[in-house]
Amino acid sequence: MNAAPLFVVAGPTAVGKGTVVRRLREMHPQVTLSISVTTREPRPGEVDGVDYIFVSDAQFDRMVDNGDLLEWAMVHNQNRYGTPAAWVDEQRENGLPVLLEVDLAGARQVKRKVPGCRSIFIEPPAWEDLQRRLLSRGTETLEEQARRLRTAREELAAAGEFDVVIVNHDVDRTAVELAEAMGLN
C-alpha cells in the first residue's frame, strides 16, 4: 500500500504560514497537520499538545539521539523545533495526507529523507509587508525581531529550492492556492 502524500510548507517568519494553514484546514479538514516539538516557552494562549509539544532541552536531545525526529532545526539561533517521525509515518500509512509547517532547514531535511514530498514556499508580497507583520505581532523583543528579520532574508533567498512558491497577498486566496498546489481542489 502506498503512503498518503507528504507536503512541506515553509517560508520566512511572520509571512502568515500558520494563518494560511489554519484556513486551509478549515477548507480541507482531511489534511492532517503535524504538531511540532519545540524547546521554546509557550506564547500566551498556546496549548501543549495542540499548538506545539513543549519539551525540555534534555527531552529534545533524547529524541534526536533516538532518531525520533523526521527533521529538526535550531531556529533563529535560539530554540529547537522538530517533527515526530513515527506520527507522520503512521498518519500517511493510514491514508491521511500530512502537512508539515517547518522552517527552511527542516524543509531541506524532509526533502532529503522523503523523496517525492511536495514542497511549497510562502512568501510576502514585499519585504516591507514582512517587517510590518513581524512588528505588529508584538510577541518578540526588539532583539528577537532583528534576529528573525536577518533569518528571513536568508529564507527568502531559498524560495527557488521549492516545487511551488505562493505569494501571501490574502489569507483566503493563499489558502486556495496552497490547496491547488496540494491537489486538493
Explain what you see:
- The protein is an alpha/beta fold and 185 residues long.
- 42% of the residues lie in helices and 21% in strands.
- It has a single domain (6-181), classed as P-loop containing nucleotide triphosphate hydrolases (Rossmann fold, 3-Layer(aba) Sandwich).
- The protein contains seven helices and nine strands, in the order βαβββαββαβαβααβα.
- A five-stranded parallel sheet has the order 2-7-1-8-9, sandwiched between helices. It has a four-stranded mixed sheet with strand order 4-3-6-5.
- A hairpin with a 3-residue loop joins strand 5 and strand 6.
- The longest helix is centred in the last third of the chain and has 16 residues, at 142-157.
- The radius of gyration is 16 Å and the shape is globular.
- The two termini are 24 Å apart.
- The mean pLDDT is 91.
What is the architecture at the second tier of CATH?
A: 3-Layer(aba) Sandwich
Query: Average pLDDT, to the nearest integer?
Result: 91
Helical residues, percent: 40-55%
Order of SSEs, N→C? EHEEEHEEHEHEHHEH
E-strand count = 9
Count up the domains: 1
Distinct helical segment count = 7
CATH class: Alpha Beta
Largest sheet: 5 strands, parallel
Kindly name the structural category. alpha/beta
So what's the oligomer here? single chain
> Superfamily at the CATH H level?
P-loop containing nucleotide triphosphate hydrolases
**Could you give the distance between the termini?**
24 Å
Net shape: globular
Low-confidence stretches: none
CATH fold descriptor = Rossmann fold
Strand content: 15-25%
Strand order of the largest sheet: 2-7-1-8-9
